[in-house]
Write the structure tokens for this entry.
Amino acid sequence: MKKIAVFCGSSLGFSEVYKNDAIKLGTYFADNKISLVYGGGKIGMMGALADSILKKNGEVIGVIPGLLRHEEVAHSNISEMIVTKTMSDRKVTISKLVDGYIALPGGFGTLDEIFEALTLSQLGIEQKPVGILNTNGFFNHLIKQLAVMVAEGYLKESNKNMLITADSVEELITKMNTYKAPKITKVINKIVS
């Protein structure tokens, strides 16, 4: 994978462990010549991630809707900033640029973006790996909720398994690099086992 989208918070949260893993991920990207595509902010998790890559002369591409350009405090030192008209345009632009997706801790926006990527995979529109870095068990309850959705008949096990999870950067990237998308016979979610 040459370009990976990372979705994460514009806040750092209450524990340094989250920021530290964002920096680890950014360092890994820079050391392995992986370009970051992200929300374009210079604050919070987004800023920590981008700065760690820039510190090692890596490539950072921001994609930010015009309405958030000032609210999110756009990063002025990144390699490239793409300004879109809407939030929806932002997601489409990111999708066209990347080979895979990763979620770090964040809020509603992070969940929206990672679930849209999963939905595109579920429908067979994309076949890119979608992963979460489960720092400090941040996503444990989300992972459990997906199991509830399977148990209650709202999600197929094969679709749940499209979400790649790992507790370390190296494990996550290894899993994403070896990911094989399920074969889909129809858009109505019939996956061949």
User: Anything to note?
Assistant: The chain is about 40% helix and 20% strand. The chain has one domain: 3-192. The mean pLDDT is 92.
